[in-house]
Carbon-monoxide dehydrogenase small subunit
Amino acid sequence: MRITVSVDGTAYTDDVEPRLLLVHYLRDKLGKVGTVVGCDTSNCGACTVHVDGHSVKSCSMLAVQADGREVTTIEGLARDGKLHPVQQAFHDNHALQCGFCTPGMIMQAIDLLADHPDPDEETVRSGMEGNLCRCTGYQNIVRAVRDAAGRMRPGAGPEAER
Ligand code: FES
Ligand code: FES
């Protein structure tokens, strides 16, 4: 089937197998290897991207379902050489070790912060519960998300896009 998808601001038209998962389309066809596969069964969240501004586990969606839609991956966040505030907060709060979960964590956090601009710890923990990390114990991830919230609030600098 022929699909046209906007990915990180660029339109791509490709012929794909109907069974192709979005995550494999992004990685294998477009070379967007920042989106990673941790489980392939919708459990770990490592493959999280945004589709029309909302987080989606890209191993749970077919590429053909993205036809005509706007996909953002971790690789589309930095602008003009400047990290997205959530990326910067993860860096500054040491919210990663091996980094495997980090792309999905950051995409999920951005979606969470769009709905909860000033989340308490409980809101962060429950909003991020679909994203697993084997390394950090989550403490610094929670800290980073709340720190990012402060950076993204109006008056804290250029407000980040969803
Ligand atoms: Fe998609 Fe684990 S690879 S949820
Ligand atoms: Fe290693 Fe999260 S930093 S899985």
Summary: Residues 96-101, 133-136 surround FE2/S2 (inorganic) cluster (ligand 2) (CB under 6 Å). The domain at 85-152 is CATH 1.10.150.120 (DNA polymerase; domain 1). Strands lie at 2-7, 10-15, 48-51, 54-57, 70-72.
